[in-house]
């Protein structure tokens, strides 16, 4: 039975185009599949009013493959991992997971090198194939970097790191703009077994140093300056401040993004100069499947960001497979994910997924409105982008500028559109689909998280005849088994139900731990619903059995697709000497998706006319976290609504901040309900003074 199953799965996967590393299946992906998928399949898409049918794929049906992936994950993932990845040593066990303990291991006994899979493998076949198109801030100044060039840059950088004493297992912080050097830095770490932690270049010095300290980084890689939207960003200056409080940092490697010379100190090393001295070759170190590849800090419901850990083989495989299947990526396509490499989307769909698949991937350094709101579509036209993957917040912004900015440019290269990071509202979905894609390109709303490593729920355009409903993530990816839970922790059966979204089975891309705090990992994700991974999101399973994400169930908010704990903002505000207490809530916002609204209590002796308080609070958040984290509104109140046990009732504050004071819900557990009238009065006064109302 097992053998028969294996054979048939092998064929199913081959026919579906999954296989390409070895032998006979190679041609099925490069020859047979593309023929059907390019061109003539297009006419069979039947756009209905709100249901968009995809062209049929060849090969096994999604159902067949999906069923195998969840019923027999060892066969499914074992077979794909052997086939898709280049191993230095074959694995002996597909998985050894016990999610009640938060223990997740895949491909045990196996060894491989991620940078070899992402670079050498493709450079060996064709060193001149373009790996990266660096779409620099100034339109029309893009640079192509081939696999051969990226490999050489990565090797030189890896050799430099080694010469300065960076070893396997050491952590390296990367604080850089979206650039080939940043990608090379990530891959150089991967090549020598160092662990990178990319910190979004918009984070403040304090946020950067907190992450460097937590990860105990030995080195930092940065640039003299960044350039974004025509403005210069002083990255090196920020790093200088950050590393003052980071005793573990031995070197700061500084690459040159601009011609400006910045002051170099005791720790600083000019990166390009050192790289020029190095050999263009560096042997990739074979690493165990479960060695750490990177960590990436993300927000939870406490004030302290968590260092989410991903490991080698499982992460890479999952990023590559989802990249191919969700976007229907075909060899030769130009893949355009406009996310920053500082977020997980940039890791999985700018760098690791596309490069593992030998794709040409775009590095977008600019903003959606620089120099004008046509930037994305002008870039699509100039680079002939085939898959465009972006965030709803940008789409909402652009649709306000009108269709002319889109129609001006030729978008005929586009085949798939993708959305990520936050719920996409219907208006934005329809505009993206109809205006940008002219109703011709499937638009996939992809749900996932830093913790999941890759896309978990998405309509999947490569699925045979699949319908896509607007603004819905719809179907689980291979190996992902969603479950919805009720308040008592029971699994909800049937359709047309709402609950806490859990994933009931381990998959190779899932996070392995929180750096330095495995207990927090277990408590946050595996304790709430024993035997399941809890996502923190709520979801609805429709009558048809499709999933729709309804939003976070914890105190995490999503500002312009950037995840933030309200507790982080509160901690920053609480540092003000005149502020004993604050409560921050997220409220809906037209462009940002959500915005932070802060309720602030001042010390008794501080007069309200103290005019600088708002300014000071804004500056605090901006310096402790980042500019995007600064609340839009501050309401100075005498006290906060608390339950008898002392818990702040944020639910009520949220209603007030949303101007829904008529329906505050159950407030019987409040210690003193009169606080509500007090706050509502202040709110009404604030509203009447505010220019927005
Ligand atoms: C949180 C994860 C996924 C990579 C970028 C963000 C929200 C993400 C969707 C979507 C509705 C979404 C969830 C999730 N989210 N994608 N398609 N529909 N919500 O990664 O920073 O780890 O944030 O973003 O709330 O839990 P992240």
What's the helix and strand layout?
Layout: H1 2-15, H2 25-37, E1 52-53, H3 62-71, H4 73-84, E2 87-89, E3 93-95, E4 106-108, E5 111-112, H5 114-125, E6 130-135, E7 143-146, H6 147-163, E8 171-175, H7 180-192, E9 195-198, H8 205-215, E10 219-223, E11 226-228, E12 231-233, H9 235-243, E13 251-255, E14 268-270, H10 271-276, E15 287-288, E16 292-298, E17 306-311, H11 313-327, E18 334-337, H12 344-356, E19 360-364, H13 375-383, E20 387-390, H14 392-401, H15 404-407, E21 416-420, H16 426-436, E22 443-446, E23 467-468, E24 482-485, E25 497-503, E26 513-514, H17 518-525, E27 533-541, E28 547-552, E29 556-559, E30 562-565, H18 566-574, E31 581-589, E32 593-601, H19 613-624, E33 633-637, H20 650-657, H21 674-689
Parallel strand pairs: 6-19, 8-9, 8-10, 10-13, 13-14, 18-19, 18-20, 20-21, 21-22, 32-33
Antiparallel strand pairs: 1-23, 2-5, 3-4, 5-15, 6-7, 11-12, 16-17, 17-26, 24-25, 25-27, 27-28, 29-30, 31-32
Helix pairs in contact: 1-4, 3-4, 5-6, 5-7, 5-12, 6-7, 8-9, 11-12, 14-16
The structure holds 5'-O-[(S)-butoxy(hydroxy)phosphoryl]adenosine.
Question: Which keywords apply here?
Answer:
693 residues; alpha/beta; GMP Synthetase, Chain A, domain 3; 7-stranded mixed beta sheet; 5-stranded parallel beta sheet; disordered N terminus; binds 5'-O-[(S)-butoxy(hydroxy)phosphoryl]adenosine
Report on this structure.
It is a single chain. 33% of the residues lie in helices and 22% in strands. Among the domains are: 3-105, no CATH class; 560-689, ANL, C-terminal domain (GMP Synthetase, Chain A, domain 3). It has 693 residues and is an alpha/beta fold. The strands form ten sheets. Strands 7-6-19-18-20-21-22 form a seven-stranded mixed beta sheet, sandwiched between helices. The longest helix is centred in the N-terminal third of the chain and has 17 residues, at 147-163. The chain contains 21 helices and 33 strands. The protein binds 5'-O-[(S)-butoxy(hydroxy)phosphoryl]adenosine.
